[in-house]
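Lecture 7 notes: from sequence to structure.

We start with a single chain of 1530 residues. Read the sequence below before looking at the structure.
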Amino acid sequence: MNAGSYGAGFGFGVRMWLLWVLLLSLLSAVSGGADSKAVTTSLTTKWADTPLLLEASEFLAEESQEKFWDFVEANQNIEGEHDDTDQAYYDLIVKKAGALLSSVQVNMLKFALSLRAYSATVYSFQQIASNEPPPSGCSAFFSVHGEKTCDEEGLAALLKSAPERRKPYLFKGDHKYPGSNPDVPVVILYAEFGKPDFQRLHQVITSKVNEGLATYVLRHYLANPSGKKVYLSGYGVELAIKSQEYKAKDDTQVQEAEVNATVIGENDPVDEVQGFLFGKLKTLYPELKEQLKELRKHLVESTNEMAPLKVWQMQDLSFQTAARILAAPAVEALTVMKDLSQNFPTKARSITKTVVNSEIRKEIGENQKFFKGTLGLQPGDSALFINGLHIDLDTQDIFSVFEVLRSEARVMEGLRSLHIDTPYIHDILKLNVQPSDSDYAVDIRNSAISWINNLETDHRYSSWPYNVQELLRPTFPGVIRQIRKNFHNLVIILDPTQENAAELLSVAEMFYANNIPLRIGLVFVVSDEDDIDGMQDAGVALVRAYNYISDEVDSQSAFEAVISMFNKVAIGGKLSVGDVVKVLEKRFPYVEVSSVLGADSSYDSNRKEGRAYYQQTGVGPLPVVMYNGIPYQREQLDPDELETVTMQKILETTSFYQRAVYLGELATDHDVVDFIMNQPNVVPRINPRVLSTSRTYLDLSDTNNFFVDDYARFSTLDTKQKSTAVANSMNYMTKKDDGYIRPVTFWVVGDFDKPSGRQLLYDAIRHMKTSNNVRLGMVNNPSAAPSAETSRVARAIWAAMQTQSANNAKNFITKLAKEETAAALETGVDVGEFAVGGMDVSLFKDAYEGPKFDFLLSHAAYCRDVLKLKKGQNAVISNGRIIGPLEEEEVFNQDDFLLLESIILKTSGERIKSKVQQFGIEEDRASDLVMKVDALLSSQPKGEARVEYDFADDRYSAVKIRPKEGDVYFDVVAVVDPVTRDAQKLAPLLLVLKQLVNVNLRVFMNCQSKLSEIPLKSFYRHVLEPEVAFQADGSFSPGPVARFLDMPQTPLFTLNLNTPESWMVESVQTRYDLDNIYLEEVENIVAAEYELEHLLLEGHCFDVSSGQPPRGLQFTLGTASEPVIMDTIVMANLGYFQLKANPGAWILKMRKGRSDDIYKIYSHEGTDSPAESDDIIVVLNNFKSRIIKVKVQKKPDKFNEELLSDVIEENEAGFWNSLARGFTGGGKPEELKQDKDDVINIFSVASGHLYERFLRIMMLSVLKNTKTPVKFWFLKNYLSPTFKEFIPHMAKQYGFQYELVQYKWPRWLHQQTEKQRIIWGYKILFLDVLFPLAVDKILFVDADQIVRTDLKELRDFDLEGAPYGYTPFCESRKEMDGYRFWKSGYWASHLAGRRYHISALYVVDLKKFRKIAAGDRLRGQYQGLSQDPNSLSNLDQDLPNNMIHQVPIKSLPQEWLWCETWCDDGTKRSAKTIDLCNNPMTKEPKLQAAVRIVAEWTDYDQEIKRLQTRVQEEVNHTKKTQGTEVHTEL
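Now the structure, written as C-alpha cells:
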C-alpha cells in the first residue's frame, strides 16, 4: 500500500478490527495528558454589522440598476415573509435574488455575502447619511436639496422650495430610480428597504416620480445599527516559529481570559492524523467516540514533536511533498496540499519518508522548461491563471479575484446565451479585442500647410547624405541621424491670436535653428469671412504678411518675420495688428502696408484652406501639433515637454524606418512622405468621439423571439431583451447581394424626416457603397409623436426594406435620403414617383400605407429608454458600441464611418469573424453573431492580455479536476511549489474556487531540488469560506475565524496577519503576548482579536510645471463639517502619499498653510468628482485598494518658493493635532502651546510584552533624568492592546505627552516577511513622513535602553550639517574582537576607515533630513539592496552605515551609548545611556542581563508594576460599581 495514499484504509475485515481493539485498550492506559492547545484569530470591522439584504442589493446594482430596483421592489415586505431564523432570512434573500440572476451568479452572490464584500458599500452610505445629519425621531427620511423631512406633507413643501437651493452632489454608486426626469428637484431617500417605513415613503416618492415632479435617489440608512461587528475574511494568518537564540519572553504572569468554547468544535471530516481518517472513523464507529478521541490525541502529541531534520533529509522535501499530493485521489488532492503546506513544520518529518518516482521528476523537469520559457517562472515560483488572466497573488487580494470571476462569468454566460458551444467559448475569450492604443494619423499632404523648410531640396541641408541606407549605419545611442529625407514632419496648427502661439513657434524655431532633421509646417486658422481684412484682425494680418514675404523672399524669411512679430508681444499678451505692421515696415520700408494687409490684398492664399483643413481633420481644440500626422496629447504641448517628446518620437520612428529599409519596403527613390501616409494608421479624419477610450456598449448577449412590430409586447421587455428585439427585426443594406460574413454592422439612429437625420444616413450609405465589410441598418428616433404626416420618409424606408430586394431597396433609400426628395414629399408628391427600376410598387404601397406605426413606437421607446437619447437626436451604433448622442451641429461624415470601420476591423471584427466562420452557420446569422460577440467582448473593462500557456505534459505531475459536462466552466491553471508561502495561500483559494464555480482545474507542481534548510517555518491559515455558515439552530455561526488546532507546544510562535494591501488592522483584545506565544504556558486557547482600523487611500502627486513630486506637500482628508480628520505628507519616491480612512465620502484638500499658499490643485484622476472641480471627493465603498493621482501647480506669484524652506509658520504647528486629541495625556490643550523648541520628541518602537516592559522602563528613566517636557512617539502598528490601554494612565501619572503614529508599508517598496525585520524597517525608512513638519528634531531611543542623563543635551548637540547623529560601536572590550564583523571584509573596505555606528540611539535633524531628501535616498538604496535576501542582515543599522557616503552620519561621543557586550567596564561610570545589547558569546537572556547590569532597573520595574496594579484595581472597581450594566464587547 502506497504510503501517500489517503483514505485507503478500509475493508481489511476482522484483522483490522482486532488491531483497533488492541490499540484502544493500550491507549486507555495513556489517557489524561495535556489538553490540545489552540490559537484562533478573528478580524472584524470597526463599523456595525450591515444587513445581508442590503449587501445583496449592492451586488445586484453592479449587474444593473434595473436589477437593483427589481430586487428592492420584491423585498419591500421581506420581514413578514420568513420565520425568524437567520437561515430562513438568508435563504429568502438568495431565492429572491435568484429570480434575477443565473445560477453561476447566484453562487457569486453567496460568496460575496460570505466575504461581506459589500458591507463597506452599505456602510459608506451610512457615513454619507451621518453627514446630513439625520433629523431626530425619523427612522427614514427625505433630503431635498439639503432640507430634510420624514413625512409626505413635508416632502410636498420642500419640493416647491427646492429650486432655490443647490442640487446635491450625486456619487457614481448612487441608485437613481428609473424614469426620473433630470430637470426636476432631486429627492434622496435615506432608508433601510425591507422595513415598513421604507415601504411607506417609497410609495410616496415613486408616485411623485411618475408625475414627473422629482428625481429619486435611494441611499441605505440604518436608524438603529446592530451592536455586532462584521466578521471579515479574505486574509491569512501566520504562526511563525521564532528563533530562541536570545530569550525574549516576558516572565510576567498573564491573567487567563474566558474563551468561547465553541471555537474549537468538532473537527472536519477530512481529519487525518498519521494516516488515520478520524472523521470517517467517528461516523463508522459512533460508539467508540471517546476512545477515538484519546487515540487521536496521542497520535497528535507524538507527531507534533518537531525534532530538527538533518540537512540530507531536507534536500528533497519539495518533490516529496508533491508526490504525497499527487498520490491522493484528485478530489482530495487540494485538501492534502492545504494540510501539508499549512502545517508543514509538523508534517515535514513524515514527508521525508515519501518515495518520489522518476516519472514525476522527469515530467516536472520537462514542464519547468515551459514555465521558464513562456511564463518566466523559476523552479519554486508560483502563478495562477483564470481563463488565461494572470492573478498576481502578491498584489491581488480576494476582492479583485472576485471581480475577475464575476466579469469572466458575465462574458462566458453572454457567449453561452448566444448559443455558442462551451469548447468555442474559451477560444473566443482568448481573442484580444481591446482597443489598441495605436495612434491614428491624418494626411499631411495638403496644400493648406505652409512648409517652412524641405530637407530634400533646401540648400542648407545639401551636405547631408541622401541615401536611406544611411539609416542602417551604426551610431552612438541617442544620436539623431541627419539624412536629406523628409522622414520627420512636424505640423503646427494654430490660431495666431491665442496666447500660447508664441511658445509653440519658439520651439519650432529652436528645432529649425539647431538643424534638427525635422520638416516644419504651419497651418494658420484665422477668420475666413470676406469682409474682415488685415487692418482689423491680427490673425488675418499675420497670414497676409507671411504669404507676402514667402512670395517676395522665401518661407524661411517669412517664418523669421513671424517669430519677430511674436517677440514684440508682452508676456501673457496677445498679438495685435500693430505688431505685424511694425515688423513689415522695418523689413520692407518701401512697401505700402495697406496693399499687403488691406481689403484688396492679393495675399490671401491658404487663408480659407487653413480653417477648412483644421475642420476636416477633426483634430480637436487648438493649438494642435502633429508629428507625421499623429496629434500630440494636450499635456505634451507644454514647451519643454514638446521638445523632449518630439526628440523621443524622432528616435522611436527611426527604428521603424530602419526596419522598412532593411526589408526593402523603403528605398532611396521612394517619396518618404507618401510612404508614411500609406501606413494603415492614417485616416482621412480623426474624430475624438470615435477614438475615445471611454466607450459604452449595448448588451446584445441575449437570444429571444421578440420583434418591434408588436409595440404592446415590446414595451414590457427589459433593456437587454429590447436590444435583441431591435436586432431581430433589423433589415440591412449591403454593397453587394452576396453570401458574405460582414464583420462591421452600423445602425444609424436619427429622425429621417429631418435634414440632419437624412444627412447622417446619406453619409453612411455612401460609405457602405465603398466597402463590402459593412451592413447598414436604421433605427428611427422621431422628433414628434408618430403620425402619417411626420413620418413619411421613415415609413417609406421601412416599407422598402420589408418588401423589396436588397439592391432595389438600397437605391430607393439613397434617393429618399436626398433633400430634394424630402422637399417634394412635403409638398404632397406621391412616394411612388421616386420608385427605382425593378421595384414592386404595389407591394411597397400596401406596406407604406398600412395603418400600424408599431415599429416607430418601438424604435422611439428604444431610443428613449435604452439609448438614452432625447427625441430626434442622432447617434451611430457600430457593432453595439453607442456613439452619441451627436450634437446639433456635429459633423459625422463618410470619413468617420471609414474610421469606425477601420478600428473595428483592426481590433475585433476580423478576429471574431474568423472564429465564427468555424461554426458553419449561414451568413446573416453569422454577421449578427460577430456584432453581438464584439459588443460583449469589447464592453469588458480593459485588463491584462490573456496568457497563452503550454505545458509538456500533465500526466504525473499535475492535479487535474475536470469540469461538469455541458456547463460553462472556468479554465484555472496554477503552477506551485507545495512547500512555499504561495502554496499556503493558493490551496485554500483553489478549494473555494472549486466549490464556487465549475472549473477545469490543473495544478502543476514546480518543485525545487537540493533544499538546504527547512522551506516553511510557519503554520498558516487562510480565512475564506464559499458561503455563509449557520449553526444547528439556524442562527449565523459566529463568523469566519482562523483556527490553529493541535499545535505543538514547545516552539515559541509569533502571530502575523497577512491582509489585503489597503487594510490597516490592529490587535484589539487579547491578554497574551502575540509576539511570543508559548503554548506550554497557556491554559487552552489564545484568542487573538483584530479590528480593521482603516482602509487606506493611496495616491501619487506631481507638480505639472516641473513633472517632479512636490516633496513636503501636505494633504488633509475630512468631511464638509470636519475638514481635517487625517493628514499626510507627499514623499519624493513616486510622489506617493497615503491617508487613513474608512468607507464613506471624503474630501481631499491641500493643508491650510504653506501647502495651500504655494500650490493649487491642477487636475485629478481616479477620484469621484469631476476632473475640473476644486474639491476632490473620494468615495471609499469597497475593500479593494484605492489609488488616485493628483496633479498640482504652483500659484503664479509663488513660482520661486519652496515648500521645505526654513520658516515654518504657526499653523503648521497645529499639524496632526487631530490625532493628538485622542492620544495626548497630561495637561490641557492650552498647556500644550509651550514653545515647541522646549519639547523633546522621542521616538521608539516595540513589539511583544517583554519589549513593551522595557519600553515603559526606558520612558521612566528618561522622565527621571530630563527636566524639559517630553513627548513620546510610538509606532502603533505593533503595540499590544495592553500597552495601548496602560499608556494614558502612565502619561497622567508622570505628566508627559505621547502620540501613536502609524504608516502602512507602501506596496511598491520591497516587502519584508519577518516581523522583526519589518519593525527594523519602520525605524529608519519613513522618518520623513511619520512625523508632522512641525517636529524638527527627533531622538530615537531603543526600548531596551536606560537613560542616565538629561536628553536635552543630545537634542541640542551640534550635528555640523549632517542629517543625523549615531554613536559608533565601542571598541574597548577586547575579548569580543572576533565578533566585530565590521572590522573585516565588505564593511572594512566600504567604510574606508570610518566607524560603524550602532542604531540603538540616534538624533535626527528632520529639517535637514527632508531638505536633502535623505528618506528618499534611504528607500532607494534599500529597494536596491533588499532584493538580495543575504544583504542588510541588521536592516536598521546596515542601511545608514551603507549610505554613509551619500547621507553623512555625525558620530556622537562614545559615552552616549554604553553596552556591556562591546564596551569595557571602565567606561560604564561615564555612560549617559546603557543599552542591553545581545551578547553573541554568552547568549544571556535580556531580563537577566537587565537586572545584573543596571542597578536602578529593578526599582523602575517595581515602580511601574505598582502603578499597573493600582490602575487595574481602579478598573475593576469601576466595573463592579457599574454592576451588570457593563457593555460586553462582542
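The first helix runs from residue 13 to 28. Keep this in mind for problem set 3.
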